[in-house]
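Thread: "does anyone have the structure for this chain?"

Original post by V.I.:
We have the sequence but no experimental structure in hand. Need at least a predicted one for the grant figures.
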Amino acid sequence: MPRMLTGWYLGFCISRPATDQALKHGLFWLLRHTLNPVVLRAARSGRAFSLVRHIGRRTGRTYETPLIVAAVDGGFVAELTYGTDVAWYRNVVAAGHGVLVFKGVEYAIAGIEPYPAEPGRRAFGFPAELILRLLRRQEFRFLRIAKDQPQ
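Reply from O.Q.:
Generated one for you, tokens below.
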């Protein structure tokens, strides 16, 4: 009996190869349904995380995504942990705008631009800079805020 079960399981695994895309999709689903609700509550209260409000490209719905950013002159620096293939980033780039809630204050995002890795890591300060360096993080973006807003 154990042999049949093992054979069935192996046959199932072979017929459905685990691709990087499938693993990534599974990880995003897990984060969205477990960690994100907790992080969203912390972000709305102004603690530790920031929020990006963006409009869905296809749905037109307003979404909120937790994000860790660092304040710099003229805007904020975001480290793209999951790369550029995430909804918040693609939506803000497509729309050309969005809203960042940082420590309880709303800032209008006027645009997103690439940001150099070294200054990007430095913007987060110690110990985050060290952690980002050890994790070899290279993708940073500058979230430019509208000129009429103080920082």
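V.I.: this helps a lot. Residues 19-145 form a domain with the Pnp Oxidase; Chain A fold (CATH 2.30.110.10).
O.Q.: and The helical segments are 2-15, 20-33, 35-44, 87-95, 117-123, 128-134.
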